[in-house]
Input
Amino acid sequence: MAASTVSLALPAAGISPHRFGVNRRRTARFAQRARARRVLTTRAEATTSSDAERDAFVLRASLATSPTPLASLMNEPDASKAFDVVVWGATGFTGTLVTRHLAKHAPSNLRIAIAGRSETKLCSLVGSLVERGDSDVLLPMLQGDAADLTDMSALAKVARCVVSAAGPYGELGGVLVGACANEGTHYADLTGEPGWMRSIIDAHDATARATGAMIVPCAGFDSVPADVGSYAAAVELRKRFPAAEVKSVKSFLTKVLGGFSGGTLATGWRLAEDARERTSFCDVDGLVPNAVPGTTNKRQKPLAFSELDPIYDSDLNAYATMSPFAPCDVKVVRRTVSLLNDSDSEDTDCPYADLPEFCYEGKLAAFELGTPIGWISSKVTASLVEAAVRGAADDVTRVKMKDALPKPGEGPPEWFRNAGFWEMRFKAEVSFFYL
Output
């Protein structure tokens, strides 16, 4: 047995609620300067007639005193793919953080717009971005309804890429995904709802392949670290042993400080209340094309309460329990393994073994404690995770939990987010057989 361990240490993304009071006089001064800068930038960058028309549309949208109704853009030729990125659900807790980060760090020539359903909140967000110094331009505002097909079709039409921060996605996201697939518009979200993901794959995968749209759900902590980290570990092991195929990857969340937003908790409540999500919760191959129970998952450890029992890992020198993110992560990683193995592209070099021979495990090994204290810590964590899952599944307890925990739009304060961190380590293994 040969093993390779790859460590990834990345800062955690924090989340927090903010309510803004906009200083109208000060905002007006910033707005005047921003308009002048946007005019100069637009004139300098317009190189073709179509670019100039799009730039003119973007400029008009940024100077509007109220959000542009999405439905009004369906027959607006200059609006087609006018924005490189549109943040849908921008005024929510996570959406505000995404918008701030883009406004502050994105390249200056990236056309960004924000979109949502509340005119008041959109205007407040734009004003706060300028006041805080996150943006020196007024971001264009688009207004619509997630359940309205015309609005979502218009959103997909005007954007090259949509970043959706409006969840729970099983309730609010299906129309937008379908519109993006039809329009060839790239899409990413922060869902952790495997049952809903299965439904959009079944409904829109063929269309997205035909139009070239890249639909990327689970693009947050669920499940980018697990998916990318597993692949990085497998590739590293493949470099050392070119003829080998990786048959096992374990991830260990070894250090973490963070909190949950109300939107994330709302998704958790939906997982407990939705029959499709409850059914798919323990299905490790729920996102795998043409999965055959007992065959494609024959080497995969199950998702069960028994897997919460602490185990000792000699390589890590720590006790570990099943990660609370594992139920989503394992489905995403196994879908990646399946798609890479089935790819016909000559550019795709899959480091993994065939899916029936592959196993992914997501573990929580807080601070790598290999002592009795580590076992106690893992046992306490496992008990809390089990209690939370069972509590959310009980109707009466879930109501009490909803009342006590953060609501959508709420979350950890900024100082706590700034102090946050996380670290994951990955161990890939491959078996060698000698004659």
In short: Residues 221-430 form one domain. The CA atoms of residues 323 and 417 lie 21 Å apart.
